[in-house]
Amino acid sequence: MYLPEIDLPLLRAMLVLKKHRNLRKASEELGISQAAMNRGLAKLRRELNDPLFVSTGHGMEPTPRTLAIIEPISKIIELALDEISPVAPFDPLTSEREFSVAASDIGELMLIPELMQKCEGFPNIQFRSHRLAINSLPDELRSGAVDVAVGAFPALESGIHCRRLFTERYVCLARRGHPALSGDFTMERFFEHSHVVVSTGMLGHAHSLVENALVKMLPRGSIKAVSPSFLLSAILVGESDCLLVAPSTLARLMKPRLNLEVLTCPFDAMPFDIFMYWHERVHNEPAHRWFRSLIIQNFFQADA
């Protein structure tokens, strides 16, 4: 059996080039010159007897041969990093790591400003926000496109770890001066007013239970707007006489910004737990462990 003479740095170069589709960006991530990148690519092409990447108007596109072998190459690199290479400790003071977080718009508003504030002393650490998409989330966690996801999902595939951060409860939001604020806020009064409903669609989020309940119980014509955005829904409520049933985190974040008032939810909306999710692939990575610890320290509520 012929065994190609390919070393691990060349295999890693393939992964990086596939990610960026750009020789300059790939060479910058690898810390080598473009000339060295081209020489390595030429060697790969000879050993594997395939062009591997073809220059197009959209960048360096992988050939079918590359797409067929990229997953086993990724596993080889992971094994080398996890089991063979020594693990260097993570130093946030000198790190230039970018951490990516997938969350709803509430999660983004809750997480990113707080993380930025906590990391003011670490000048080169960056954060990137990704919007949650349940269909692609497992792949994004597995590939490293997303470091952690924060939300409430009943089930994700095996190989994904989770840690409860806090328990979310529902409240009702209204603009300051809303007629519903005078007197007892009963179900009858709840039904008297117009509503904005947040729709999580096919996201698979726990909020879909309350969304479905609202659509069923509210009188025909009382739902004036449906939006996938919690933040937009809060803005609409702040500028109208509509009500919004939403998680208490949204109320805490947006009440002072939009002059909203918080009412007790008049029906039994079940609380739900918010989790942090990450992939087994990075479970023991020092930088990732540090990042997860940072989130847990700032958002975990033991008594929630």
Automatic annotation (TrEMBL):
Keyword GTP-binding listed: no
Keyword Endoplasmic reticulum: no
Gene3D superfamilies to which the protein is assigned, alphabetical: Periplasmic binding protein-like II, Winged helix-like DNA-binding domain superfamily/Winged helix DNA-binding domain
Biological classification of the source: Bacteria, Pseudomonadati, Pseudomonadota, Betaproteobacteria, Burkholderiales
Record organism: Cupriavidus basilensis
Stated name of the protein: LysR family transcriptional regulator
Keyword terms of this UniProt record: DNA-binding, Plasmid, Transcription, Transcription regulation
Domain of life: Bacteria
GO molecular function: DNA binding; DNA-binding transcription factor activity
Membrane-spanning parts: none
Family that this chain belongs to: Belongs to the LysR transcriptional regulatory family.
Residue stretches making up the HTH lysR-type domain: 6-63
